[in-house]
Automatic annotation (TrEMBL):
Protein name: Putative alpha-1,2-mannosidase
Gene3D superfamilies noted in UniProt: 2.70.98.10, alpha-1,2-mannosidase, alpha-1,2-mannosidases domains, GH92 mannosidase domain
Superkingdom: Bacteria
GO terms classed as biological process: carbohydrate metabolic process; glycoprotein catabolic process
GO cellular component: cytosol
Coiled coil residues, start to end: none
Glycosyl hydrolase family domain mapped to chain residues: 267-729
Organism lineage string: Bacteria, Pseudomonadati, Bacteroidota, Sphingobacteriia, Sphingobacteriales
Self-association state and partner proteins as the record states: Monomer.
Amino acid sequence: MCVAGLQAQDLTSYVQPLSGTASSTTRSAAKHGASTELNANTMPAVTLPFGMTQWTAETRQSETKCQPPYLFKDSMLTGFRASHWLSGSCTQDYGSFTLMPITGTLKTLPADYTTPFSHQSETTLPHYYRVDLPKYHLITELTATTRAAMLQFTTQKADSIYLLITPNSDRNEGFIKIDAKRGLIWGYNPAHRLYQGWGKPAGFSGYFVVQVEAPFSAWGVYSDGKTKHADSLHNASNMGAYIGFKLQAGNQLRVRVGTSFTSLEGAFKNLNAEIKDWNFKALVAQNKQVWEKALGQISIETANQQYKRIFYTSMYHAMQQPRLFNDVDGKYPQFSGNYQVKQLSGGNYYDDFSMWDIYRGQMPLFEILKPNLVNDCVRSMILKGQQGGWLPIFPCWNSYTAAMVGDHVTAFISSAYVRGIRNYDVNEAYRLMRQNAFKMAGDADYKDGKGRRALDSYLKYGYIPVEDSVPEAFHKKEQVSRTLEYAFDDYALAQIAKGLGKTADYQVLTARSLNYRNVFDPSVKMVRGRYIDKHWVDPFRGSSKEFYITEGTPQQYTFYTPQDVKGLARLMGGPQQLETQLDKLFDAGEYWHGNEPGQQIPFMYNYTPSPWKTQSHVKQVLEDEYSDGPGGLSGNDDAGQISAWYVLGSLGFYPLNPASDQYLLTSPLFDAYRITLPGGKQLKVMAHRKSVGDVYIQSVKLNGVAYSKSYLTHAALMKGGVLEFYLGDKPNKTWATKATDQPQSLTN
């Protein structure tokens, strides 16, 4: 297949926004997933890449934790939500509001106005959504820009139509105001913190302004189903506003909506900047082109249409977060503030980083595709650290959370740095990262979510002993996982220390990068909980979920040493033993793709005498753990990390160690693809195979020259050129088996 033959395609038609809206049907999820971990928790979001607000049909009201606004199994609809749901998460929405059109008699209780709908009557695309509401003889359509949206309601018979506008506060908070003369409704829904500091004000609100094309003949406010003819309402239970119209059959009612995190004025400015007229069809076309350009940065060639659907759906999901937080004029809410508004001097400010997940693959994907976005994200991290006093661990809801384990904002900044993405104050970034790595926050700051959890134990013992229950954390205990992840974060920070000439820090941090050894028990060849006196937790259950492991088992977490895979192999008895232990994991069905700490595991065979097993297992994961149906993701998508894994794995390279500049190779899923790189260069990749089942690498050429290494550097990738894989149906057991052809490791 010739890459030059790749043709322009209608890529948005391949995106399946309903994928991930039902419980997972994949192999590993069936065995290892449970409860909320069985759900990908995505929604059919209408948005633009990394937009401030996503729009979705709403089948679940409120902003309940671990409940996305839309579930595929539901058959009743309660409106159309302007959502800030963290895509694919088990968190909760915030600052959202819902618009619901109804006809006939005014009703303001959800139990009265909820309406049946059918998936057969839905059209779901990244830039457009449509659904028929037969109960109300209405067709609803919507499209969205980065900070604004337009909805169009078409009546199918003459009737009264009412539009309900509901701030979705579960705390009976918020405000709504009707300006009948100007055809405007505006309001806000205060955001609250999650995890550490749970329930406290987050220091900003979700603001909105709704502009109606036609004058309305009735209006008022409601609370708990009771209406009154007033123009505003504040801090009431189940509150909202309604406006009413008289329409004939075939009439269309259009509304435009602006959103902001700073003010009502900001929402209105955003609306006026992004939607300048009432031409719904033209806006749909404009938003489609934005998505076509974003998706088209990677153009794939394959006869398998399902592969195309999964790939471009994965791209779509990977571009839901991080979330743009600033208005068109550069104003944004101060991080961890109290309704203070800050002004950017340039670029954009982002938040909602599910950082425990996305540093692994999702952010490295955009270090290839969108380095300017990555620069903005690092600058956003620096601003957060300066405004709050500490670099956050898991910045979401524009606040500290102390969620999950590790200190992976450091890992993310390091991954950008080692790839030469440095358009920010590197020294200031280093100061903040170093503070996290070397200092414990004071009691009040620590309880507020600032600083590494249990850092004092980690520094004192070289691991976190099980006696330290890590009480000030959403994820308590999990001492072994914390130890492993801090060791990697230390390695990540050491790379920047080395680049800045901070030799003493580099040496200390590099030594700490080996702390994973302190929780590895050679008698069982796995990581294991350990006490202060260094004896191990008994009994040992390697394939069971244990209190000292995060969302997994000791066997699964043993392989989380991305900085030093060769060192781990040596602890096990050598590369052959590493291969044996990997085989045991896969043979026992213990690989769990839905949990991020194991997602590098299939690529670890590139450090063994059998890199061909990476090619086999990655292909199996791509086939078993992804589909294009509603249950087609293997667990929480976690802001796009599960989806980004598919993108990278199907292209044939993955950053096993995100804080290095190397991508580990495997066989591409597609016949050919092209990545359009920043600056206009292109990487063209061809997979030469005689039959569809040819998955094993026989040889590789880079720009026509034989290439024997099982990795590709970031610099080589970003130069562009032509990369060719020659594949066969049987392994080539000599390709990339020499130590000199294997990826780097902290120790050899």
